[in-house]
Amino acid sequence: MALQNPLKSCAFPQKRLHVGRYVRLEPLEDRHIPGLAASALSAPESFRWLIYGPFADLASARARLEDLAGRMFEPCWAVIPEGGEAASGWLSFCDVSPDDAALDIGGVWFAPPLRRTRAATEAIYLL
Q1: pLDDT 10s per residue in the chain (127 long)?
Q2: 7, exposed or middle or buried, with CB in 10 Å at 0-12, 13-18, 19+?
Q3: Which pTM value belongs to this model?
Q4: Helices 58-70 and 33-41: crossing angle, nearest 10°?
Q5: DSSP string, 31-82
Q6: Is the dihedral of CA 93, 120, 122, 78 positive or negative?
Q7: Which is nearest to 92 in space by CA: 51, 34, 46, 56?
Q8: Could you give the CA distance from residue 85 to residue 11 in angstroms, rounded to a whole number?
Q9: End-to-end Cα, the chain, rounded Å
């Protein structure tokens, strides 16, 4: 007897604003890219566990972020710590499978000052 998924199928996750106590997750847009690209370029060691980066120059960082922002099937968010206006990282849903009611949180990059903070922990929790 095959097991049946009781949820059958779930709606695809919406790319929307998430607000917590310590962090705000905004859908990644063009306005976030300049600051994030500059931050990413200044922290090449932070890409050790990602499949992309470190970036050779600002143009390559911007190109990757533009790609992430435009992905329809891997929603991506800019991570903005409480009290700030500038994004300090990004994260996304990956391997979204509505038929299996499953997804992964991936593509996570936090600038060094954001790491190991309440904002970083809450960013994961909110998704």
Answers
A1: 555 555 567 888 999 999 999 999 999 999 999 999 999 999 999 999 899 999 999 999 999 999 999 999 999 999 999 998 899 999 999 999 988 889 999 999 999 999 999 999 999 999 9
A2: exposed
A3: 0.89
A4: 130
A5: GGHHHHHHHHHT-GGGGTTSSS---SSHHHHHHHHHHHHH-SSS-EEEEEET
A6: negative
A7: 51
A8: 31
A9: 34
